[in-house]
């Protein structure tokens, strides 16, 4: 069976659905293909701290109502080290805030508004991406389908078919795998603090986050070979308490976990983000450690750059912005990658070397005493301006 559209989108995660909605609102047709079921994609537990630019883009796509009603505005966050707390006052230092709204909820909002999404496809593969007639071939319910399109947006993540379809001699990969992971717990307990708390401790990093006023998300740095089965709830809460300043640990409310998992950390960038008629978006092109909360925001930034270029192409017949997509997107990607790497190496226990640990504490003390240093961190955290 053969069908056609203007933009074929591979992947129905947040970036794929957001791109589809923005294109539709600007008169550009698209079809989204996803190998997983809608229930599976909506059930994935991910982060949910949104930069103001991401919030505005979701509003522009027409899916901001529930987000603005239920999201939690944060004007700052806390850095904990030793028994000390230092607040990075985002709003005061930059004039901007961030919004806490779970990616699971974003996915549901986008899926409810989306059209032309084909779920649970198999054997998906882009073809003809280096010519003028790209197409996506896949199977659905045992039948072979061909989607012909002008352009393909690869929004199918790190392990997807999009980047894998680019010849290896036409793409360069940069990667750093960190020697630890994050053990995360989701629990229906009130958050420890009204803002996020990032803790540097001799026992390892900890993060106290939330999804709502009644649901909390907590993380502990753990070895890469750690097993979730070795971390019953009681052990997790005991270790989290130990990594917090005593005054904060005494306030921690515990409860049964409703989800528990371990995620490895890596930094990864693929260059370029365009090959012929294929454009890589989000995790298909780059991964950052979650410390700086940049993953979803970088994907949204890619979407913003690409949908603007596609709309300009169809309205004005210009290819300039499409030709500039990779360079524009990568300028932001590398800045966010640098920040995520710096924040990760500042807050985590990297080794048993006391010299390295002293350097971390010296940097944290400098942040606490220097408005300029705190401002630089705040500027990166809320999202740097888009390159011109």
Description:
The chain has 388 residues and is of the alpha/beta class. It has a domain of 230 residues: FAD/NAD(P)-binding domain. The chain is built from 14 helices and 21 strands. Strands 7-6-15-16-17-14-18-21 form an 8-stranded mixed beta sheet, with helices on both faces. The protein is globular. The termini are far apart.
Classify the oligomer. Answer: single chain
The CATH architecture category of the domain at 2-71 and 99-174 and 265-348 equals 3-Layer(bba) Sandwich
Structural class: alpha/beta
Global Rg: 21 Å
CATH class category name of the domain at 2-71 and 99-174 and 265-348: Alpha Beta
The fraction of residues assigned to DSSP E strands is 25-35%
Biggest sheet architecture = 8 strands, mixed
**Helix proportion range:** 25-40%
- Global outline: globular
**Unreliable parts:** none
On the 0 to 100 scale, the average pLDDT is 96
- Spatial order of strands in the largest sheet: 7-6-15-16-17-14-18-21
Distance between the termini: 43 Å
**What's the name of the CATH homologous superfamily of the domain at 2-71 and 99-174 and 265-348?**
FAD/NAD(P)-binding domain
Secondary structure tally: strands: 21
Task: Please report the number of helical segments.
Answer: 14
CATH topology of the domain at 2-71 and 99-174 and 265-348, by name, is FAD/NAD(P)-binding domain
